Batch of 2 targets.
Target 1
Amino acid sequence: MAIKIAILASGRGSNFLAILNEINAGRCNAEIKVLITNNPEAPAIEIAKKNSIPVEFIDRTKFKKREEMDDYIKLLLDKYKTELVVLAGYMLILKGKSLLEAYRNRIINIHPALLPAFKGEDAQKQAFDAGVKISGVTIHFVDETLDGGPIIYQEAVDISDCNSAEETAAKILKVEHKAYAKVVDSFSKGAYVLKGRRTQFINFPIKK
Ligand code: GRF
């Protein structure tokens, strides 16, 4: 069975598109039920519309507190019977307790650096400016911390030949596009269980 996913994106949506392409090519066993965005001008919306994927816009200004907005996101996720929440360039930190608890270990994010190095925004520029030779991609569970949830998958990218932060970002992005769909696909084949902070993949059927 294809896993039902919701994409949360605020911008360009290239990871969203990459996952969609892999699904359509039969390499990612998932079904995108909805795109949720906080940005009415996100190019990701066009991608969803072209592919007949429902779009839910959440207006930050309609909520007094961010927690309330996240409660609403939880309702949307429930409505679309979401099994896995995929953050793909979603630029707000999830703060709602009920959302984080209800979807514990079912919300994943992609970060364009090898965590725990270079957390937060502009990770590729941070890595380039720091002069590191190797950076990469991290896919991790989302918890209450910033880019601090348990790591699911990492892939190193040699950035020693990059001449700018932009080149660094472009080189890492290519790897993101392949890696994210692979990780999403793996969720349909099993589960990641946590031993402390270490994730371990278990194929179905899971023995209890
Ligand atoms: C990606 O670099 C991702 O790692 C980061 O935000 C960017 C989103 O890009 N979290 P896109 O919207 O998927 O093109």
Note: The chain has a mean pLDDT of 96.
Target 2
Amino acid sequence: MADRYLHLTGTAPGRFLTRRLGLPQPAPLRRWTLETPHLDGPLLHLTAGTPTVTGVAETLSRAGLPVVSRTDRPAAIVLDATGVATAAGLGDVHAALHPVVRSLAPGGRIVVLGTVPSPDDHHQAAAQQALEGFVRSLGKEIGRGSTVQLVRIPGGASAHAAGSTLRFLLSPRSAYVSGQVIELTSAAPGPAAPDPVADPAAPLTGRTALVTGAARGIGAAVASVLARDGARVIALDVPGAREELERTADRLGATALPLDITAPDAADRIAAAAPAGLGVLVHNAGITRDRRLANMPADRWASVIEVNLDSVLRTTDVLLKAGAITRGGRIVATASIAGVAGNTGQTNYAASKAGIIGLVRSLGPRAAADHGVTVNAVAPGFIETKMTAAVPLFIREAGRRMNSLSQGGLPVDVAEAVAWFAQPDSTAVNGQVLRVCGQSLLGA
Ligand code: NAD
């Protein structure tokens, strides 16, 4: 279902009318293409206080943009605020960004680098937590399709660990991600990560990726982006969707695996489909069976928990235990902003998606220690798919507009976030839940 309002505000009369009425002004977002893989302009590198991490300049120099310390029109601004440890030090954040924020190019990026709030120093913790409120507010006011994020790097660590994260956030791939806080870990699971610069165009070469629910929608986009990044893809969907699945798989040069993930032998059949092991496992399949709790029969409750959560727990356990996910591997599950904020008529769905958040936070550190595997989740907001096309008109319009970018996301936006988790050098990204929601007003 096309976003006609976005089209309308892209025309001069439409813009005039909607401005007069005080209606939202969504800016068209520029996504990644082969021809335009980078933002168009320089990256302004600023600092506030004395940084506590090393290697920031070197890491930024590999993000694909020319790094400068002064410019009239930055495409991106990175503020290193890792050294801000007092309330007074927050003045340096204002002093650094206040003079330049207006000069950011449309569709620009601001990334604030922070560090983990300390459990032992409440002044440092207050100052670093303050950055979160700052970033979330700036994300809401910046407009023109620009985004703002906070990346926390553990104190004393090298910014090198943030390489894949900065490449993602400072590129068109993160067009629909804003107001997010990403906390990197210092523990480095698995073997030394392969050098991503070896083949930046196809960083997942040599890895097998399995995507559930891949016949259509977000899953098909994930399969497509992972294939673009060089992975050998196995696309799984229910046998009832076989034709659509085979069409998608053929288009991507992927292997189709018609299988219901709730089948008792699903994990074994997945393992059999990837005898050399899986480098990336994406739990994307999901269903909704909406009703208010008072009207919800047990079967609607159970089917949603079964598909969205229980099958994810079960297959993950079996595959990890069997060693079917290779060291350095990546598990990415799919939550939802409904799992963060809750939603009327979705007690079952929101419970299942909040369960996914619990799963990744708990399993991430242990899977890294025991298997060298990271476990993360995407939490999509309003994404234009068949699932959301079925939503009644007014609720759909509200879902599209109630975010800082005033529009719905596309399946590819979620897929790019999955691909970031999957990067070989995303080793320090673990136990994270990334909302791909244009900074939806629902939830934190
Ligand atoms: P979709 O309905 O378009 O696609 C889901 C796919 O999963 C379908 O192809 C379906 O056949 C498959 N599937 C369902 N049950 C399965 C099973 N038992 N075994 C194997 N495959 C199964 O949905 P979508 O919008 O692309 O959503 C993908 C994921 O993203 C879901 O987990 C969904 O909850 C989540 N999500 C979507 C949105 C959104 O706005 N579209 C928002 C938040 C979260």
Note: The first strand starts at residue 43 and ends at 47.
